[in-house]
Amino acid sequence: MKKFSGVGVALVTPFDAAGRVDEASLRDVVDHVIDGGVDYLVALGTTSEAATLSGDERERVVEIIVEQNAGRLPVVIGVGGNDTASLVEQLRVLPYLKHGDAILTVAPYYNKPTPRGLYLHFKALAGHSPLPLILYNVPGRCSVNIPAATITRLAGEFDNIIAVKEATGNFEQATAIVADKPPGFLLLSGDDAVALPFISIGAEGLISVLANVLPGESASMIHRALEGDLDGAREIHLRSRHLYRVLFEEGNPAGVKAALHARGIIKHNRLRLPLCPVSDALYREISDLMP
Q1: CB 239 within 8 A of CB 18
Q2: What is the model's pTM?
Q3: Which of 114, 162, 163, 241 has a CA between 20 and 30 Å from the CA of residue 132?
């Protein structure tokens, strides 16, 4: 599934002054990232604030993204949770999955399953998914790590488990995945700040937050690295080091929404509680770093 190498962008969900989904701004973001050169779109990931979207809103967000994309790029749709049976049912009935090219599914959170529980969870999803699956390993949010051995076992046993978005920042784990994964299975960085060193290990791309606001920078860095131009990629990486810090200093997607607002790409700097906008001081710092 090489179409998911390169740069995917974990799209934000803009909100209007009343806190509703801002459809016009979402369409502007989609065009902005496509024009910037990203390789695929990711809807309903962590950065989308999917946890605070209603079922109807999630469906509408996917519809808007698919409509505005108009077939230009592949679309990955997030479907995650901590109740395996409920997720299996969602894979069966969610109407908007027909618009996707793959599903991004996060490790079960809160329950803290064992490695065997994680294996059985993803095995169940693989047995019922209408689309290829990209595992999402983000222990900082889920309080559980999918061990490298579990990831490579799943990749080896299920042809429709095609990649992992690895957001541990753990180079030992990334190395183990690359060493033991079957051919064709993709290791994707889940963190902008470590994407370049991950590629030096053998990762084949990035699912990016920064690409919402600077898609050209993100795409150029990853494409250069994958093509062997490490000097060019390193120059972009080092130039972006302050952005990597400030965009996540007060949480995601608060930082990237501030950046999008500062650049005029979204109309309102709104998030849904319990998330809130960045402080005024950080907003000014982010704004000063925008080109």
Answers
A1: no
A2: 0.97
A3: 114
